[in-house]
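ingest -> fold -> write
write: protein_1
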Amino acid sequence: MRWPGRAGAAGDWTAQSGNGGPQVPAAPAWMRWLPAFYIAGILVLEPVTPVQWPVSFLLIALPVIAAFAHGPAAVAAITVFAIVFEGVLAGTPCCAGRTVSYVWERHYVAAYLCTALVGVLGTILAAHRVRRERTLATVRFVAEIAQHVLLSPVPRRIGPIQVETLYLSAAAEARIGGDLYEAVPTTYGLRLVIGDVRGKGLLAVETAATLLGAFREAAHDEPDLADVVRRVETSMNRRSARLAGSDTGERFVTAVFAEIPRRHVVRIVNCGHPPPLLIRSDGVTELETADPAPPLNLGMLLTENYRIDEYPFRPGDQLLLYTDGVTEARDPAGAFYPLPQRVLSWGLLPPRELLDRLHRDLLAYSNNRLHDDTAALAVYHLPD
């Protein structure tokens, strides 16, 4: 399938990544300043309300409001401030219109006690929130390390080929899932794989690790791309046979294997995966195969050898490999993401800018609600 090309412009965007140990993200500025806004609102209401309406009682809620964004020590200090401030408002003739005797009136004393009780609860809530945020930050940090080990950084430049990657996890608590990619420079050329493991969780990560380990070894050993895929299939079958459970046969992986030898072609073996896009100055082409192989770990369904499709891959061409998390992203109306048309409208972009543009467009299209993990590889043949 082909769409005629047209030129396009792209905005600049720079990806930022964290470093160091686990870091707890800071609360939004409006949340940190919410207690001050709350106090300001009370000060506005107090002079304009009748004396018999003690607006200062609203300060009872101040410790809970502070607990959303501040630590336990700050909440305790704000609680003391709230009690003192209640006393000031209760016995300030110039502002509230009350005499000093109101300070120890029983209703105000009850407000002091309630504020102190709410302050204790708010302090406990803040301590629990801080502890949970630190635990979550540690979990995310460990997930990032695991992702770095599983999806090790690919070489960004191999001869005339430039490679960039994108990985997005649909889970908010972790940044690792069942999508995978790898690029291995070998004596037979640059060999790539991108895949999507069926299922989620630890089992999906283990399956991805098995596939990547087998691919990294076979890519160097096997001269033929079909033999690389066969080696990976054998490793997947062995692992599946060792696992207990009735769904062993369903633990499969869709994948695309690609090879860019020294001459200007790209060879592809598709195992039940979305077809790559070939991006050129004159348009965007989906590299669909007439006879795709079954997903990995379902090789028993294959009746003949793996089919290798070969396409021209000349200087200036770009190959985009992706998982179904891209094409299955939906807008609020439920429409799938039209990847070829979107890429076509952007025109020719360098690989890093292409993936950054794809990242932003996916989030905007899905209203920041990606329901599946997403991985993509952009492979660019530099001009001579």
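write: protein_2
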Amino acid sequence: MLIRVLRLLRRPWTAAVAAAALVVSVLVTIPASGAATAAACRVDYTVNAWAGGYTAQVKITNLGPAASGWKLTWTYTGDQRVTSAWNASVTQTGASVVAVDAGWNGALSTGGTAEFGLQGTWRSADPVPSDFALNGVSCGDDGGTPPTTPPTTPPGTTPPPSAECGDAVICSGFEDQAGSEPSGDWRFTAPDCRGTGAVAVDSAVAHEGGRSLRVDGRAGYCNHAFVAHAADLSAVGPVMYVRMWVRHSTALPTSHVTFVSMPDSAQGGRTLRVGGQNGALQWNRESDDATLPAQSPAGVALSRPLPTNGWQCLRFAIDTSAGHLDTWLGDEQVPGLHADGVPTQDVDQQWLARGSAPRPTALRLGWESYATGDDTVWFDDVAVGSSPIGC
């Protein structure tokens, strides 16, 4: 039996740029005993498209025998061109595309999954591919009867990370904080100058447990208010994974703000920063003020706002050897906050101008505004380590 589903969703990203989300699933079941051997795989291909470009999250589910490595192939029937990829090596010749595992995610047990993402361009047509083949065997064809309720599989990250801290260097839910003043491994700091911004341990609002860190952020350059963790992060890696739960009250402003600040030895101690600008999340490098994504309308549209008045799981990965960056909001990988060393229009023109990879040495959480931007921000369940950490 063959099942194939095609679903179209639309949602605005900005007033200037609209995006469409296409989800296609191809499923081939294992034949009954005595029947001819058939492919046993499923591919969930989720694409966010806009005028002239797209990103796609691809999930492979192996329904056949275990494999020690995988190669997924397909053919574009439009004029799509792959420009970059993550968690896989993706090449394109004409309309034919080949994705090969990244080594660490090559093992596929029966029922196991692997996920990767890619970014590309198109001009006249962007149809969803349907001729997927895993290790040279087709995952299906165009026949079959669609189910009554289409499956919905949210995009995620590969390998599936644990929500526990494991051997993380930082693992804090602020439950060890006895009073309202940050203490122990967490200490207040105002790196440049101190104003009316304030930090406190909050026992009334928490993601889990009974405490969180509250930051009353104030606009204006001299209102820096952060807490710094005592851990030295110099040896974490080669890929540093950071997970935190964030809750904030006011939408990110047009002007630049920062709520995560990491001293970076590759910048001589200046900071690698996570914050917002033009209403969306962004990375910023203090030494040259480069941003990821580029602050063009198309670049901003590839990022996401930070939703207000609710806890959000924010995760990022920093490759301290290759210089790559990845960012997830919940289980969604944010395409505008992805840098893999391959130039991508409206994303990383400024970012790639500096050749050295970042090497964060410490973690600070707080609020820093460079113009307008009062906000109240809470942090909870913070973890930093050398292995992926889930929400």
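write: annotation protein_2
The radius of gyration is 22 Å.
The chain has one helix and 26 strands.
pipeline exit 0
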